[in-house]
């Protein structure tokens, strides 16, 4: 059980969330409750509907049925930019940086949101330099201080993910949705990102999709297992990993991942 | 400006240019290019025909306005002739019928571009890629049809005999050289405004949207609103360019709202270098010069133009200025 229960209430709650693509149910009747202040894992085999879930929660996709409540508000009908403004900010499964902007500018674009809209096309962008210090702090936090002026597109993969997290953090989100933050990383990068997530999760809620079960075990307070768009099991790591259905679902698709469940 | 006092921070993100020009957002290479441009504007009319130069500058501004959209937002409009042509009609009409002074007539052209930009942007901005191009083309065709039918445009004849009038009601512009200075000023203001847009907080968000739209949205930016403003700015400046051209030649005709004009501005921008600051103006200069000096070949102009275009696209994909910039390893 987690030791930091800030508020036992759910910050994010869905009821009967469903998404159909031309009759194919990618997400079916998912009722998810994410506790405020927790790190919640969303796992499941490839094609289970995890990313689709994220797209629904952040309104990049419109649900076919069901409702989404965030922080006491019904966000089912909101636009994605509005959801972000409420403090529910996502990352993407495929690394999402602004490749031709410098690393510093990437973070600054997020900090720039503090100004509200930036429709002032007549003003020099030198006004944005007031965010440089904060941007540097964030970059320092994720170990990117030596890369500040490089175009983001030139960073190695692991560093790009770190930059994404710094950019997301720049918005000081209430809740972060991370889609496979450690995918494709070297073991060393994974360790760095894991400790980073643990650090930045303080005072926030995190919902993360993750295939690396070692990472899930180490980080997540609660885990929801999704298969074929439906919730198969929910609970803490020990409970979920002992669930025979979960083991079967993993063994049925990807034994290498199931192998990870038994890691000591 | 306050900006200058902070430039001392260690390593700003852009390589800064010559002291006076850095406030404009130019890097060193761009500053030099800009000084060359100023020199060209200043001495050009003493070596070349002012009317030719004015035509060139009107198209250069048109291409720069178009480039703001395709180069910095990544939207290909195939209907920019509607802003250019209608800007021309409104400027001509307001100068001839309403007796507006030239600067007001040009602004009226810009206002027309803005209005049309709001309407067509509202209809088109949510579409992506080829659908955006198709909708803008369709709207431009509708505008063309209206221009053909409406009385105030004069149908096939256009609006002729438009007086250049007196700038601010004082300075007579009937001499080509006097008119030239106004056109050069309009071009320069438009050019610098576009450059400011690119290097503004707004421009920064625009770049982010072009680079990765879903990510920009996930940071809370309403991407469509930003694209819309860029579209309207581009349309406004296209209207200004068209209005200025109408005053220069004293005529506004269907040619400027015809779809071929939308194609021509695409050509100029690609030829000069899409997404470069100076490319569109260079592209416009090349095309206008070509049309001028190849005029004796009659209908062959189009064929020659097409041939040169194909060669350019194959030989230098980044456009003339784009290739030079790559060769010199600078941004232009
Ligand atoms: N836009 C779409 N149109 C049609 N089908 C889709 C669409 N998006 C996702 N799907 C389908 O929905 C299912 C769930 O996909 P999703 O990307 O959510 O899986 P995932 O759990 O994130 O998988 P992975 O672990 O591989 O990232 C898949 O079968 C996918 O093919
Ligand atoms: Mg996925």
The secondary structure category of chain A is alpha/beta
Largest interface: A-B, 45 and 39 residues
| SS-derived structural category of chain B | mainly alpha
Count of strand segments of chain B: 2
Q: CATH superfamily membership of the domain at 4-95 and 173-262 in chain A, which one?
A: P-loop containing nucleotide triphosphate hydrolases
SSE order of chain A: EEEEHEEHEHHHEHEHEEHHH
Helix content of chain A: 25-40%
The string of secondary-structure elements of chain B, in order, is: HHHHHHEEHHHHHHHH
The rough form of chain B would be described as: globular
Textual characterization of the structure:
The complex is a heterodimer of chains A (264) and B (332). In chain A, the strands form two sheets. Chain A has a six-stranded mixed β-sheet, sandwiched between helices. In chain A, strands 1, 2, 3, 5 and 6 form a five-stranded antiparallel β-sheet that branches. Chain A has helices at 50-57, 80-85, 103-111, 132-141, 157-170, 187-200, 213-219, 237-242, 244-253, 255-261, and strands spanning 10-21, 24-30, 33-35, 39-43, 65-70, 73-74, 88-90, 175-179, 205-209, 222-227, 230-235. Chain A has a domain at 4-95 and 173-262: Rossmann fold (3-Layer(aba) Sandwich). Chain A is built from ten helices and eleven strands. Chain A has 264 residues and is of the alpha/beta class. Helices cover 34% and strands 23% of the residues of chain A. By secondary structure, chain B is an all-alpha fold. Chain B has a domain at 48-257. The longest helix of chain B has 27 residues, at 223-249. Chain B is globular and about 50 Å long. At the A-B interface, helix 2 and helix 3 of A face helix 1, helix 7, helix 8, helix 9 and helix 10 of B. Magnesium ion (MG) binds next to helix 1 of chain A.
């Amino acid at each position: 059980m987690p030791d930091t229960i800030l508020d036992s209430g759910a910050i994010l709650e869905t009821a009967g969330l469903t998404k159909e693509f031309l009759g194919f149910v990618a997400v079916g009747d998912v009722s998810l409750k994410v506790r405020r202040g927790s790190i919640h894992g969303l796992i499941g085999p490839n094609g289970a509907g995890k990313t689709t879930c994220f797209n629904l929660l952040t309104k990049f996709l419109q649900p076919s049925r069901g409702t989404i409540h965030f922080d006491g508000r019904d966000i089912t009908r909101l636009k994605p930019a509005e959801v972000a403004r409420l403090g529910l900010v996502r990352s993407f499964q495929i690394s999402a940086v602004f490749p031709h902007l410098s690393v510093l500018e990437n973070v600054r674009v997020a900090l720039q949101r503090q100004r509200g809209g930036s429709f002032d096309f007549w003003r020099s962008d030198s006004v944005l330099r007031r965010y440089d210090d904060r941007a540097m702090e964030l970059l320092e936090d994720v170990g990117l201080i030596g890369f500040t002026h490089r175009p983001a597109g030139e960073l190695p993969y692991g560093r790009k993910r770190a930059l994404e997290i710094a950019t997301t953090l720049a918005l000081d989100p209430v809740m972060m949705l991370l889609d496979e933050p450690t995918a494709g990383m070297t073991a060393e990068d994974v360790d760095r990102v894991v400790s980073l997530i643990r650090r930045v999760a303080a005072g926030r809620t995190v919902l993360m999709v993750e295939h690396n079960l070692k990472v899930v075990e180490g980080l997540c307070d609660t885990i929801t297992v999704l298969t074929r768009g439906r919730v198969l099991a929910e609970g803490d790591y020990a409970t979920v990993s002992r669930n025979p259905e979960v083991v079967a679902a993993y063994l049925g698709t990807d034994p290498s991942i199931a192998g990870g469940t038994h890691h000591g | 400006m306050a900006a200058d006092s902070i430039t001392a921070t260690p390593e700003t993100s852009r390589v800064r240019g010559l002291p006076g020009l850095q406030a404009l957002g130019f890097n060193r290479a761009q500053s030099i290019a800009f000084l060359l441009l100023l020199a060209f504007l200043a001495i050009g009319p003493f070596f070349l025909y002012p009317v030719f130069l004015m035509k060139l500058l009107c198209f250069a501004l048109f291409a720069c306005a178009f480039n703001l959209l395709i180069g910095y937002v990544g939207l290909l409009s195939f209907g920019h002739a509607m802003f250019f042509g209608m800007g021309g009609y409104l400027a001509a009409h307001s100068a001839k019928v309403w007796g507006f002074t030239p600067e007001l007539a040009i602004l009226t052209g810009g206002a027309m571009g803005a209005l049309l930009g709001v309407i067509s942007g509202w209809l088109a901005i949510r579409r992506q890629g080829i659908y955006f191009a198709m909708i803008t083309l369709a709207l431009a065709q509708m505008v063309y049809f209206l221009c053909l039918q409406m009385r105030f445009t004069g149908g096939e004849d256009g609006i002729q005999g438009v007086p250049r009038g007196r700038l601010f009601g004082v300075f007579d512009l009937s001499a080509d050289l006097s008119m030239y200075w106004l056109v050069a000023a309009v071009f320069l203001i438009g050019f610098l405004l576009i450059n400011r847009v690119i290097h503004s907080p707004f421009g920064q968000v625009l770049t982010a949207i072009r680079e990765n739209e879903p990510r920009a949205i996930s940071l809370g930016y309403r991407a469509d609103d930003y694209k819309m403003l860029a579209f309207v700015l581009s349309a406004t400046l296209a209207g200004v360019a068209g209005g200025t051209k109408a005053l220069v030649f004293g005529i506004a005709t269907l040619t400027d709202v015809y779809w071929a004009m939308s194609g021509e501005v695409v050509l100029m921008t690609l030829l000069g270098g899409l997404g470069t600051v100076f490319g569109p103006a260079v592209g416009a200069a090349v095309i206008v010069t070509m049309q001028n000096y190849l005029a004796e070949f009659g209908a062959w102009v189009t064929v020659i133009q097409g041939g040169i275009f194909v060669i350019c696209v194959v030989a230098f994909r980044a456009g003339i200025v784009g290739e030079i910039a790559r060769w010199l390893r600078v941004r232009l």
